[in-house]
Every structure is written in C-alpha cells, then in structure tokens.
Amino acid sequence: MCMTHINRAAPCPTGLVHAWHDAVNRGDAETAAGLCGPNVRVGGPRGGSGGRDAVRAWVGQAGVHLVPLRTWSVPGTTTTVVVEQQASWPGRPEPGAGEARRAASVFRVTDAGISAILRFADLPGALADAGLPADAPADE
Questions:
Q1: How far apart are CA 95 and CA 129, in angstroms?
Q2: Which of 43, 24, 46, 25 is nearest to 35 (CA)?
Q3: What's the pLDDT at 1?
Q4: In what helix (H) or strand (E) does residue 59 lie, and over which residues does it extend?
Q5: How far apart are CA 14 and CA 1, in angstroms?
Q6: What angle do CA 41, 114, 131 make, to 5 degrees?
Q7: Which residues does UniProt call coiled coil (predicted)?
C-alpha cells in the first residue's frame, strides 16, 4: 500500500500524486513544486509550461481545489497515474467558479518526482493519453 508521505529514495507514484493534491488544496506552492522533478512539464486546455517555478506560480494563482475521485496507474520506467477529480475554484469571481465539475489529469512519475502534470477536459481523453481503454477499471 502506498503512503502519502514520500520517501524520495523509493517514491510511491500514487502516494506522491495524492500528496501533490493535498499541497495544492492547501495552497502550499513550495511543497507542490518540491514533489515535482526540476523539469516538470505542466499542460492543459490553456497551454503549457515547465519547471518547478511554473508549478509554484500556478498553485499561487489558480485557487483550485481538487478532490481525487478515482485513480488508475500504469507502471513502467515512468509510472503514469490518471486521476479523475472533482475541481472547483472557490473564491474566484467568475460565475460558477465555486461549483464542482469533473476533470481528469495525467501525472507522469519518475525517481525524480512528478515529471508531468497534464490536465484533460474529460476522463476518456486522460485514459487514452495513458494508453488505457475508456472502460479500464480504477485502482481505487
């Protein structure tokens, strides 16, 4: 079973991804960035960027709250973790920003930490990116 607290010598990919969610939800940009590799790639519907500084900036300005709902993992040299999430942006002035909506993200995890965080508009797109069929059973 994966632990949430990560031993960097032997990272547990799912635990690392859940720890990243916890840091983002607390608005803790330093911890979220520290769980990532130095060249982490960040991408989503509004474009992409890279590096720990990009993660720090995103956490600092996004104001997002992400609740992991289900997780899929694909082991390999780089472990891919797909997370279906309930996303909301409390405190944002846009109409409907505080309302929860489904989202999905793909995380790539190496020994250096999270190497990619890719947000998708829907779960089937995230599963396809990970090489999983749309009906793949979730891990949890």
A1: 31
A2: 24
A3: 43
A4: helix 52-62
A5: 10
A6: 80
A7: none
* CB contact at 8 A, 72 and 136: yes
Residue with tokens 């608005």: 27
**DSSP state, residue 64:** -
Q: How many CA atoms lie within 13 A of 140 on its CB side?
A: 12
Phi/psi of residue 138, nearest 5 degrees: -75, 155
- What ranges do the domains of the chain cover? 13-129
Instruction: Please determine, looking at this structure, whether the domain spanning 13-129 carries the CATH number 3.20.20.140.
Output: no
Q: Which token pair is 24?
A: 């983002």
- Contact, 21 vs 34, CB < 8 A? no
Record the tokens describing residue 130, joined without a space. Answer: 């990970």
Q: Which pair of structure tokens corresponds to residue 15?
A: 């635990």
